[in-house]
Structure formats: structure tokens, C-alpha cells
Amino acid sequence: MLGEIGRGDLAAADRLLPLVYEELKRLATARMAHEPAGLTLQATALVHEAYLRLVGSGEAKWKDHRHFFSAAALAMRHILIDRARRKEAAEGMMEDRRRRSDADAGAEHAVDLLALDAALAKLSRVDARLAEVVHLRFFAGLTVEQAAEVMGVSERTLKRDWRFARAWLHHEIGDLGTGALGA
């Protein structure tokens, strides 16, 4: 079916959605759990927007399910980054930082998606596989087992890559937020 979509068969795209919707929704829900309370974007909207980006571009050429779910994770990342950029532009990053009180300094906070995006771009130039691990684990919300299956590597390899990628990102951009990149 992925091949049919790649050849421009729009009916195949209609048949694909019911097959992947629940999995995409689960991934989006897991991803949205990392976002601050009160966020206007809901998991359902994230799934719909990501799916539209995936099949609506007319350039859908996925080799297999790994490639499809990697593309879905990347689409979710771009949607969240775009929203973060719009929000930052509207509020003004410096003004937001000045408003934070000392009481908030120790509180759990959301990941700075713009800093993470920049660091991920750098990581992908250093090691594309590590960047893919972050996409699948953080943006798509896959478990170690699921990400290992999607990437076609052992769970042990995936865990090692995940630990290294998290350490690299923490070193690159410092504090990502309490529990931001999980275990």
C-alpha cells in the first residue's frame, strides 16, 4: 500500500489511514504527554496534520513501515517546532525568560523544542542513526522495543544509541527539562 501511495494512488492513501491511525494516535498522545498543560494542539490534531503532510505532498515514497513511521515522527517534530517558533515570535523569547520567577526555576518545565531542533540537526550531521533514535523515541513516543523493531536493530543497540544520543543532547544544549528525554 505504501508503494501504491508512492505511485500517486490516492485511494491507497484513503485505505492506509484506518490501518495506521490508531498507532499514529498512540504515538502522538505519548509525544503530547511531554508538552506543558494547556497546549492548544491535541494529539488528534497532531496526527491529522502529520498524516496530511505525509500523504498530501504528492511525494510519498516510503520503502517500508520503518521509513513511514520515521517520516511520521519527523512530520510531528516539524509541526511541533513550527508551533514553538510561532509561539516564540508572538511572545518574544526574552520577555518570556524575564517573566520566569525564582519559584519556577525548580519546577518541571517543558523541553525547549527550538534548542532541541537545532541540536538534532547538528546530531543528524554527526550520526544520522542517533538522530533517528531521538525522532522515534522522543517525537514519535516509541518504546525501546518498538523503535528497535522499526530501525531493524537489537534492543541492546537501540538502548546504547538512546543513552548516547541523550547524553550528547544534554551536553549540547544543557538542561532539557525534567524528564524530557526519559529513560
Shape: globular
* Helix coverage percent: over 70%
Unreliable residue runs: 101-109
Structural class: mainly alpha
> Count the helices. How many?
10
In total, how many beta strands? 0
User: Strand fraction band?
Assistant: under 5%
Q: Can you describe this structure?
A:
The chain has helices at 2-6, 10-32, 43-56, 65-91, 93-99, 102-105, 113-126, 128-139, 144-151, 155-173. It has 183 residues and is mostly helical. The protein has one domain. α2 runs antiparallel to α3. It starts with a helix and ends in a 10-residue tail after the last helix.
In short:
With 183 residues, the chain is an all-alpha fold.
Question: What's the topology here?
Answer:
Elements: H1 2-6, H2 10-32, H3 43-56, H4 65-91, H5 93-99, H6 102-105, H7 113-126, H8 128-139, H9 144-151, H10 155-173
Looking at this protein, list some descriptive labels.
globular; 183 residues; mainly alpha; single chain
